[in-house]
Q: What sequence folds into this?
């Protein structure tokens, strides 16, 4: 007899190979998705830091140097005040950044230095000359 077709054993081998291939692909794409999600969240947190620091530095560059002060954990730039409350930086009481663990400011020798750290441990800092 010359019957055409596949045996159960052949079909079982093919199904097993397809299952292994599908499992490997799922694992590969799953790890890729996790990494993408992690990197996207980290980039968002870093962007949050950059936006806040940019806001403060832009206002500081436009303000009169004598109108920039830091005391009691509050940075005052002209009519705006920035303060770390909990894990938020607030400008004039309104939240402008979340997930912040440290907000340090130093004013000395005509320089304003600011460092902001987020909950992921990423820090960003800048220094601005207050001389005109």
A:
């Amino acid at each position: 007899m010359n019957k055409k077709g596949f045996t159960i054993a052949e079909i079982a081998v093919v199904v097993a190979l397809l299952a292994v291939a599908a499992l490997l692909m799922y694992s590969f794409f799953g790890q890729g998705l996790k990494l993408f999600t992690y990197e996207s969240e980290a980039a968002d947190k870093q962007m949050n830091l950059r936006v806040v620091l940019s806001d403060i530095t832009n206002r500081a560059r436009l303000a009169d140097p004598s109108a920039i002060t830091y005391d009691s954990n509050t940075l005052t730039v002209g009519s705006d005040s920035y303060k770390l409350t909990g894990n938020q930086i607030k400008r004039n009481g309104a939240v402008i950044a979340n997930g912040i663990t440290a907000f340090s400011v130093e004013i000395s020798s005509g320089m304003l230095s600011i460092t902001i750290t987020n909950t992921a441990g990423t820090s960003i800092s800048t220094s601005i000359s207050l001389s005109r």
